[in-house]
Amino acid sequence: MILYFSDNSPYARKVLVLAKEAGLEQDMTLQRASGSPLDPANLPLAENPLGKIPTLVRDDGPALYDSRVICRFLDDRAGSGFYPAAPRLWDSLTIEATADGIMDAALLMVYESRLRPEPLRMPDWVEGQWRKIDRALDTLEGRWLSHLAGPLDIGQIALGCALGYLDLRHADRVWRSGREGLADWAAGFLGRPAMQATRPQ
């Protein structure tokens, strides 16, 4: 299989972390790709018409895309159990969706500063994206710490990658302030070998 990825993409990192945790690294060839909605550059458009990464090219079928689809596929292939049985499954998927929403909002903030001409930028819109992140982090702190303390699952993997992306792109926002439980969890999770091996540069 071929995985199209970018070193700094939190979505690609999620796939890479799951693959490492599941022991599937040797099954994939990594192919760097980059681009944006304004310039697709060398994104795998033939494999993924949306022009997004990660994209996984399989030997026995069409390419898979969207990190949630690829992670589910790899977990099924490895039988790693990162998608637990219900009812815990619904909590795991909700945390994954929350983490992906954090990544979405954080990436849109980056796009606003990098892709939109300065006279057209909307600071209020950027702050609106951060408020989404802020609410999500408060919810994780107040509602989900007990789940995060449990067995490794897709929710934890996605959240670790989302928090790592905040550290990479929005460190000035100091997301740990007032969230000691989440900060403590992140300190441990970000130290996992799979997270260290995929740490953005």
Describe this structure in words.
The protein is α+β, with helices and mostly antiparallel strands. It has two domains: 2-78, Glutaredoxin, CATH 3.40.30.10; 88-197, Up-down Bundle (Glutathione S-transferase Yfyf (Class Pi), Chain A, domain 2), CATH 1.20.1050. The protein is 54% helix and 6% strand. It is built from eight helices and four strands, in the order βαβββααααααα. α1 (10-22) packs across α6 (154-169). The longest helix is centred in the middle third of the chain and has 27 residues, at 88-114. The chain is globular and about 45 Å long.
Give the strand line-up of the largest sheet: 2-1-3-4
Mean pLDDT: 96
Give the end-to-end Cα distance, rounded to a whole number of Å: 25 Å
Low-confidence stretches: none
Radius of gyration: 17 Å
How is the biggest beta sheet arranged? Answer: 4 strands, mixed
Helix/strand-derived category reads alpha+beta
CATH class of the largest domain: Mainly Alpha
User: Please, how many domains?
Assistant: 2
Name the helicity range.
Answer: 40-55%
Q: How many strand segments?
A: 4
Instruction: Estimate the strand proportion.
Output: 5-15%
**What characteristic shape results from the CA principal axes?**
globular
